[in-house]
From TrEMBL:
UniProt pathway: Carbohydrate metabolism; galactose metabolism
Stretches assigned to the NAD-dependent epimerase/dehydratase domain: 6-183
Naturally occurring in which organism (per UniProt): Bizionia hallyeonensis
Alphabetical list of Pfam families matching this protein: Epimerase
Name under which the protein is recorded: UDP-glucose 4-epimerase
Highest taxon of the lineage: Bacteria
Length: 335
């Protein structure tokens, strides 16, 4: 029997690397990886170089995609994500939207029967503070200035209008290997947060290959479900405790009140019933994070927690807007 030929883009990313490992563990797939060439990607793929075909290139350049041939299924994860997507919206559009359009065109030409599995985002629904329970059919109203969400909506439209067979998974907050950045202050503390781990997320895509007929031409919300729900404030409190940073004692106006995204997926069980991907809970996530923090690092963070939190606060754009009394920015971040 011929192996199903799977194309995986963005395999060096957090979810992508999990997907790569799971595809290879199945032992039934011929895997081609498309990614940007760098020292990091070369090192990451080195252990698998005898098991996979690697194509290095820039997805925004159609010429770099011409060697993608005879594909049966695609897991398309390659993307520029926040905060870089916010800082460089033109690059995000070039990679996330144009890159997806280029890949679709190449597959329509050379692999017209390919099943295209696309990774979209909860950001397409915009600010859901007032109405946190999200359904697939809800209007797509990205938050003001959310370039990343705009690129995802445009890429979804390109896929819906294509000649390929497809499915779209709109990913909740995928938590794993995250670094604290200025984005932490963009999210209101009273945000309803549903997470999924990278390995569960990857499992949904990998298991989905064998469920093409059921997933075909449908959009799904992908989240961890009820056991993966928490408020953003409590999520940060537990995270700070794990890292030895003490209380979440930032001043008022450090966090925005609006114009972010996230929520609870009211219809998330629909995808779980088809691809059976959920194995991790919120407690599993916090346990995995705690295992990454050595007692030495935690002790050091505890000693230096005040300067660390001072440094983090310096990254807060809402707080900067408040201190400067910048009315335009304050209107963006606060009610």
């Amino acid at each position: 029997m011929n192996k199903t030929h799977v194309l995986l883009t963005g395999a060096s990313g957090t979810v992508g690397f999990e997907a790569l490992k799971q595809l290879l563990e199945k032992g039934i797939y011929q895997v081609t990886v498309f990614d940007k060439k760098s020292k990091a990607t070369i090192e990451k793929f080195a252990p698998f170089k005898d098991q996979i075909t690697i194509i290095y290139g820039d997805i925004s350049n159609p010429l770099n995609l011409e060697s993608i041939l005879n594909i049966d299924a695609v897991i398309h994860l390659a993307a520029i994500i926040p905060p870089l997507a916010d800082e460089m919206p033109e690059l995000a559009h070039k990679v996330n939207t144009v890159g997806t359009q280029n890949l679709i065109a190449q597959l329509e030409k050379e692999s017209p029967n390919a099943f295209f599995m696309y990774s979209s985002s909860i950001s397409v629904y915009g600010d859901r503070i007032e109405n946190p329970f999200i359904h697939v059919g809800d209007p797509l109203i990205p938050s003001e200035g959310d370039a990343y969400a705009e690129t995802k909506i445009a890429a979804e439209k390109a896929l819906l209008n294509s000649q390929l067979n497809w499915t779209i998974f709109r990913l909740a907050a995928i938590m794993g290997n995250h670094k604290m950045s200025k984005l932490m202050f963009h999210q209101p503390l009273n945000t309803a947060l549903e997470i999924a781990t990278p390995r569960d997320t990857a499992r949904a895509f990998v298991n989905g290959i064998e469920r093409e007929n059921t997933l075909s031409k449908q959009i799904f919300n992908l989240g961890g479900g009820e056991t993966c729900r928490i408020s953003y404030e409590h999520f940060l409190e537990r995270s700070f405790a794990i890292f030895g940073l003490g209380e979440l004692d930032f001043p008022k106006h450090a966090f925005a009140d609006k114009n972010f995204h996230c929520g609870y997926y009211a219809d998330g069980d629909a995808l779980e019933k088809i691809v059976n991907f959920r194995e991790d809970t919120l407690e599993d996530y916090f346990s995995m994070e705690a295992e990454k923090v050595s007692s030495l690092k935690k002790a050091a963070a505890c000693i230096f927690k005040k300067p660390i939190k001072w440094y983090l606060l310096k990254q807060s754009e809402p707080y900067d807007a408040y201190k400067a009394q910048d009315k335009k920015q304050m209107q963006h971040y606060f009610n």
